[in-house]
Structures are given as structure tokens and as C-alpha cells.
TrEMBL record:
It is found in: Cell membrane. Keywords: Cell membrane, Membrane, Transmembrane, Transmembrane helix. PROSITE patterns: SSD. It comes from the Bacteria. GO terms for molecular function: transmembrane transporter activity. This is MMPL family transporter. Residues 286-378, 572-741 form the SSD domain. SUPFAM superfamilies: Multidrug efflux transporter AcrB transmembrane domain. The chain crosses the membrane at residues 278-299, 320-347, 353-379, 417-435, 576-597, 604-626, 638-657, 689-706, 718-742. It is a multi-pass membrane protein. Pfam families: MMPL (PF03176).
Length: 778
């Protein structure tokens, strides 16, 4: 492998325009594809094989009109006015609702009910009008309304309730809840904009504010000022590490090309699958982080060879790609394998994320091994200035090299038992909050103040209660071939309404054959409240008794139920995936380091990293500890996808640092250093670039903490914390302490296993040996 990469690096260096031209052409093709037909992104989270999705699939057959996504629009009356007393405003609301229902992609509940049973629908409408009129009369008599009322359009015999539109008890806010004919992502382009414009047109003249619900709102910006600052910090670290603007610019340039190709390619191919916004951001995060780091390792090695060994830039580039490039290839392969292992779980949502992220990392590796040496060919000998060469020859002799790293390694190895116990104690204490971790999907409540998502959520919660932000869609279907018994449906509705966690429950439609009834259930708690999760389980637990007593099957779906099911599914598969990653870690590291103890220590360290990361993430996002430092003003569950995604990504990145750090220790041991000396010597030669790489990754991931989307916030935070813990506590502190404990025994391998294992030559020893023999022959 190292010899092949050496030749590849020299070829790219010698023929830069060919290699650069190929990458430019590829980017042009991707850019042209996006310009001609831009695909859409979605923030919806849906997975198969969970109860909520099973109900959607059932509705798609029994009642297709109700199988689509949910939508909501909040209307705020002008200050000092309310919708009960202002007839003009009330008329505007009714017109807005009718405009929305005129859209072909929106289900009209009145038509749905009338098609199933016209007489029953008319009787129900008349009864509802009468109840509203009685309540309004009581209000005029001085009684306060305790419950929201449906909006009634018209007067006298022509009065009709406006389906889906309710007004808050104080009359200041109204809300229209409706159903699309398809899931939001599958709607024709422009449908949501058309629906919002239809609602805004009649309300604008009445000075009514319109706030779209969560499913109707635009996705937050993918890249903002936080991400730009993160890249700025990475640029500074590159300059300090490499000591040259030219050298520092190369990793940034190659990372951008890698991201443009990987993420752009995923975007261009999104016509064939559902592209979730999290998938795109995940690819962007990883592409930038590993793209910069991998290029840093190779450029740093090339400069090192030029200054220390006096090689030409051409030869140094080839050797850098052959040695550091071999480690880059292995490290990137490890990340890809860890991500693709998510496919074993069998969850399509995770699968698409894993494939996009893995493809982006693979492209980052390819860019580092081809485009980077081509760019180095354009730079030539300028990669190291004459001043840098002079400064190195005067100040960087071996005996004075890496003083800080040697002092730290000396301290750690000297106090290895205390240091090791201290790191283990710190990480385990940090992991304690994870015992209370609750998984879920963020709601509008978790967005920053001042955002449309937060304003819509708070307006709905203040006027109608927290549960109105996440109503449950309950489906009652006949267990036999006959239509449902209306008295049985009424009994079930009464039983559901009696649950202490239910604010209201009302029938919302029926299929034409009368075998399926949909019910809108508004919980007392919000979408992420534990009481709502309890309610969903209570209703599902009662399903069997409803089937036995009333002949009705009960199913629950909707965005809130889907979020609960996704969280439970992720909790179930997390131990399985963690076990897969740990076993994979031991196997892969055994191949690389040809050792038993080193893989076991590395895997145990990674387990400490994950536990501590989940604990800190829980403390900040769920408990609210110091969350204001990260631009947060609310608490909520930990993102359901975070533990499993962070485990896969952090494992791959942790192995990057393990390979670069411990392979240097092994190289020192191979070259004659023994015991603690090999640990200190290897650490001193690799720690500087590992520290720089870790700071760069933390900066890139940390920039996403200030993104507007709470899911992106959590992923950025968790990945930044994982890298900080793993790089500085585990790899830079715990690993040298443990290596010093075991000394030369760390590299022992049973002879039978040594014969079975292939020699991957990650350090490039065989390449250097061949080059040395070739040079001696000359």
C-alpha cells in the first residue's frame, strides 16, 4: 500500500494540471446538475418498522386522504382585538381556512365526513354550531370560556363550523390544523408556499399575524456565522502548526473541494432518495473536519522531510503520501467502516445518513491522496521557505526537539498509575448524567427565542396548551368487515378523554366504507414531555381491551408519536451498535498494531469517551447546565439519533488519533527505543500534529453549536465534546500512561496469530526500507 501511494503522490506532484483538471471537471458536472434541477431537503424524521409508521401505512390503504403529513397555521389577532368580537377578523379566518382547503394537496375534513355519512356529518355540524352559540351566549353574559371553541362561519341556518379552526378562550389566537394528502417531503414543489399564501391573503387586510407551524417552516440555514468562525479558528491553527500561509491554505482548499464533491454529489442524487437536512449537515461537518486533518498530516510530514532530511519537495511529497498517506488511508477507511456499520442496524433513516457521511469521508481521503500532492506540485519548493529552513537548522536539533511534548510525556509516564486512575475517574463522573438520559426529537420549544419556530410554539402553547403543538392522530378501525359501531367509537372517545394526560379528543373523519375512524387527541403535555410518552404507551396498552370489548383496533401516529417511536427504536439498537463498534475496534487495531494489549486499551479508552460524551451532552441539553454559554435558553431530550451517530463518528475519528499517536510509538520501539523511552519519543514526534488536528476538529464541530436547528446544535456539541475528551484525556493522557505501564509487553503478539495477520505496514516501514536500499545501491 505505501509503495503504491508513494508512486501516486509523485505522479500527482509531477502532473498537477491533469489531476486538478479532473477534480475541477467533476465539480463542474455536480454544479451543473444542481443548477439544472435542484432537489429538496426535508427535516422530517421517519423510519420503518415502528408502530407510528405502521399506522401511516395502514391509512394509506384504508383512508389515503388521512395518511399525509400534518400542518398547522397560527393566527394572532391585532393587539386589543379578539376573534370572538371582531366579525371582520373572524370572516378573514374563515376565508383563510377555505383557501387552504381549496389546495388539491390538503384534505378537507368536511368533504371527508360528508362522503362517509352525509346525514351524520350534517347532524354533527348542527350540534357543534349549537354548542358554540351557547358558549358565546354564556360569554356575553359574563362567563369566561374554559375551552377553545371552533370557528363558526355565517349566521342563522347558514352557520357552519369551519373544520380544523379553533379559537383560544381569550379570542387572541386562532389555529388551523389540517392534513396533507401526502407526507410533507412528497408534496409537489411549492405546495407549502401556496398554502401559506392562501392563508395570508385574506388575513393581511385585517392585520392578522400568520405563523406557520413547525412542519410548514423553512429549514434553518445550514451554514452560519458560527461555522465560519469555526473555520477561521481552524485556519489559525493550521498557520501556527505549519508556519506558512501557503501550507496552511492547502488543507482548507482540499477540504472545501472534498465537501463540494461529497455533499454536492449527495445533493445532486437526492432525486432518488429522501435527503434529510441532518444528513447534509453531517456530511458537511465530517467532510470539513477530516478533510482538513488528513491534509494537515500529509503536508506536515512533507515539510518535516524537507527540513529534517533535506529531501526535495517532489521526493518529500511522494514519501509523505506513502507514509502519512498510508495512515490517512487506514484512518479514513476506519471512519467509513464505522459509519457503514450503521447499515447493519437496518434503519433506513440512519442508513442514508451513514452512506452520505461515509461517501464524503472517502472522497476526503481521495482528495488528500491525489489533489493535495498535485497542489503541492504547483507550490514546489515554496512549501518550506528559506527562513523556515534556517530556523529549523538552528533551533530544532533532535536534543531540543518538542520540549513541551517530552515534558508532558515524561510527567504522564512517571506518574502513570495516578494519571490513569484520574482520567478514568473524570470520565466516569462526567458519564453520570447519562443514567438519566431521555431520547427524543426536538420541538419548536427548543429553537432559540425570536425564531419563527419558537414564536409559533409559544403562541400555540399559551393559547391552547402545550399539547396542541403535537396532537396525536389516533386511528380506530373495525376488527371485522362491518363498519365501526358509532356507540363503540363514542365509548372509546370517552375513555380516552378521561385519561389525565389528555386535554381533548374528537373524531376528525371516517373512511367511505365506515371501517376506519380517525381521532385527533391533544395531550396535556408538549411533544417532548414525558407525560405525552406515557399517554402514547397507555393508549397502546389499552388497544387489546378495545379490540375485545368494542371490536376496534387502535393505532397512533403523527409527528409526536413518530418521535417517541424513533427514540425507543434508537434506545433498543444502541447497545447492539456499540457492541459492533467495540468488536470492530479490537479486530482493526489488532491488524494495524499487531498487538493484543494496544487494541484492548484503545477500545476501553473509546468506551470511556462515549460514556463521558453522552453524560456531558445530557447535562447541557436535558438538565440545562451552562447551556446559555452555547446560545440555549430551553431544555429538552437528547436527540434520538445523537448517541448512535456520535458513537460511529467518534470511533472513526478517535482511531485517527490512535493510529497517528501510537504508530509513532511503535516506530520508535522498532527503531530501538525500549519501555518508557519509546512512549516518550513516539509521543514527542506525533503529539503536536495530533493536538492541532484535534483543535481543528473541535473548532469545525463547535461552529455548528450555534446553528439555528436544535438537532444540528446537539450533534455539533456532542462531536466537539467527544473529540476533546478522546484527544486530550484519552489519547494524549491515558494512552501514554497505559503504554508506560505495560512497556515492551504492549507489542507482544502470539506467534500463531502473528503468522495469520497480514502486515498492513501503516507506518510505511517497507517503503522506507526499499528507498534506503535503492539509495545505497546508487
Amino acid at each position: 500500500m505505501s509503495t503504491l501511494l508513494y508512486r501516486l503522490g509523485k505522479f500527482a506532484f509531477a502532473h498537477p494540471f491533469r489531476v486538478i483538471g479532473a477534480w475541477v471537471l467533476l465539480l463542474a458536472v455536480i454544479g451543473g446538475s444542481l443548477a439544472l434541477n435542484t432537489p429538496r431537503m426535508s427535516s422530517e424524521m421517519r423510519i420503518s418498522d415502528v408502530p407510528a409508521q405502521d399506522v401511516i401505512d395502514q391509512l394509506a390503504t384504508d383512508l389515503p386522504e388521512a395518511a399525509g403529513g400534518q400542518g398547522a397555521i397560527v393566527f394572532e389577532a391585532p393587539e386589543g382585538r379578539n376573534f370572538y368580537d371582531d366579525q371582520q377578523a373572524a370572516a378573514a379566518l374563515a376565508e383563510a381556512a377555505m383557501n387552504v382547503y381549496d389546495n388539491d394537496s390538503v384534505v378537507d375534513p368536511a368533504e371527508l365526513a360528508a362522503s362517509a355519512d352525509p346525514q351524520a356529518a350534517a347532524a354533527q355540524a348542527a350540534e357543534q354550531v349549537q354548542q358554540v352559540q351557547q358558549a358565546l351566549q354564556a360569554r356575553e353574559a359574563g362567563m369566561e370560556l374554559e375551552q377553545p371553541l371552533p370557528l363558526v362561519a355565517g349566521t342563522g341556518p347558514q352557520a357552519q363550523p369551519v373544520p380544523g379552526m379553533v379559537i383560544a378562550p381569550d379570542g387572541s389566537v386562532a389555529m388551523l390544523q389540517f392534513q396533507f394528502t401526502e407526507q410533507t417531503f412528497d408534496l409537489p414543489t411549492g405546495t407549502i408556499d401556496d398554502v401559506l399564501e392562501a392563508a395570508e391573503e385574506p388575513t393581511e387586510a385585517a392585520d392578522i399575524s400568520v405563523l406557520p407551524g413547525g412542519s410548514l417552516q423553512e429549514l434553518p440555514e445550514v451554514v452560519g456565522i458560527g461555522e465560519v468562525i469555526g473555520l477561521g479558528v481552524a485556519a489559525v491553527v493550521l498557520f501556527v502548526t505549519l508556519g506558512s500561509l501557503v501550507a496552511a491554505g492547502l488543507p482548507l482548499l482540499t477540504a472545501i473541494v472534498g465537501v463540494g464533491t461529497g455533499v454536492g454529489g449527495a445533493f445532486a442524487l437526492a432525486h432518488f432518495y429522501q435527503l434529510n437536512s441532518i444528513s447534509l449537515v453531517l456530511g458537511l461537518m465530517l467532510g470539513l473536519a477530516v478533510g482538513i486533518d488528513y491534509a494537515l498530516f500529509i503536508v506536515n510530514r512533507q515539510r518535516h522531510l524537507v527540513m529534517r532530511s533535506g529531501l526535495s519537495a517532489h521526493e518529500a511529497a511522494g514519501r509523505a503520501v506513502g507514509t502519512a498517506g498510508s495512515a490517512v488511508f487506514f484512518a479514513g477507511t476506519t471512519v467509513v467502516i464505522a459509519l457503514l456499520a450503521l447499515l447493519v442496524i437496518g434503519i433506513s433513516l440512519l442508513g442514508s445518513m451513514a452512506v452520505i457521511a461515509a461517501a464524503t469521508v472517502a472522497i476526503a481521503v481521495l482528495v488528500a491522496l491525489t489533489l493535495l500532492p498535485a497542489l503541492l506540485g504547483l507550490v514546489g519548493e515554496r512549501i518550506v521557505s528559506s527562513k523556515a529552513r534556517e530556523r529549523y537548522s538552528v533551533n530544532m536539533a533532535d536534543e531540543n526537539d518538542h520540549k513541551t511534548a517530552r515534558r508532558w510525556a515524561g510527567f504522564v509516564t512517571k506518574n502513570r498509575f495516578v494519571v490513569a486512575l484520574g482520567v478514568v475517574a473524570i470520565t466516569l463522573v462526567a458519564a453520570i448524567p447519562a443514567l438519566d438520559m431521555r431520547l427524543g426529537l426536538p420541538s419548536g420549544e427548543n429553537y432559540n427565542e425570536g425564531t419563527v419556530q419558537r414564536e409559533s410554539y409559544e403562541a400555540t402553547a399559551d393559547a391552547f396548551g402545550e399539547g396542541s403543538n403535537g396532537p396525536l392522530l389516533v386511528v380506530l378501525s373495525s376488527t371485522g368487515e362491518a363498519p365501526v359501531d358509532q356507540q363503540a367509537v363514542g365509548a372509546v372517545l370517552q375513555d380516552i378523554s378521561g385519561n389525565e394526560d389528555v386535554a381533548s379528543a374528537a373524531a376528525a373523519g371516517m373512511s367511505e366504507d365506515g371501517r376506519t375512524v380517525i381521532v385527533s387527541v391533544v395531550p396535556e403535555g408538549g411533544p417532548t414531555d414525558p407525560s405525552t410518552e406515557t399517554l402514547v404507551h397507555d393508549l397502546r396498552d389499552a388497544s387489546q381491551s378495545y379490540a375485545d370489548q368494542y371490536g376496534l383496533d387502535l393505532g397512533i401516529t403523527g409527528q409526536t408519536a413518530m418521535g417517541i417511536d424513533i427514540a425507543e427504536k434508537m434506545s433498543d439498537v444502541m447497545p447492539i451498535y456499540l457492541a459492533i463498534v467495540l468488536v470492530l475496534s479490537i479486530i482493526v487495531l489488532t491488524l494495524v498494531f499487531r498487538s493484543i494489549l494496544v487494541p484492548l486499551k484503545a477500545t476501553a479508552g473509546f468506551l470511556l469517551t462515549i460514556l463521558a460524551t453522552l453524560g456531558v451532552t445530557t447535562a447541557v441539553f436535558q438538565w440545562g447546565w451552562v447551556n446559555q454559554l452555547f446560545g440555549l435558553d430551553s431544555t429538552g431530550p437528547v436527540l434520538a439519533l445523537a448517541p448512535i451517530l456520535v458513537t460511529g463518528i467518534a470511533y472513526g475519528l478517535a482511531m485517527d488519533y490512535q493510529v497517528f499517536l501510537v504508530s509513532s510509538m511503535r516506530e520508535s520501539w522498532v527503531h530501538g527505543h525500549r519501555g518508557t523511552d519509546s512512549v516518550v519519543d513516539g509521543f514527542s514526534h506525533s503529539s503536536r500534529v495530533v493536538v492541532a488536528a484535534a483543535i481543528i476538529m473541535i473548532s469545525v464541530f463547535g461552529g455548528f453549536i450555534f446553528n439555528g436547528d436544535p438537532m444540528i446544535k446537539q450533534l455539533g456539541f456532542a462531536l466537539a465534546i467527544a473529540i476533546a475528551i478522546d484527544a486530550f484525556l484519552v489519547r494524549m493522557t491515558l494512552v501514554p500512561a497505559l503504554m508506560a505501564m505495560f512497556g515492551d509487553r504492549a507489542w507482544r503478539l502470539p506467534r500463531w496469530l502473528d503468522r495469520l495477520l497480514p502486515d498492513l505496514d501503516v507506518e510505511g516501514d517497507k517503503l522506507l526500507q526499499r528507498l534506503g536500499e535503492k539509495q545505497s545501491q546508487q
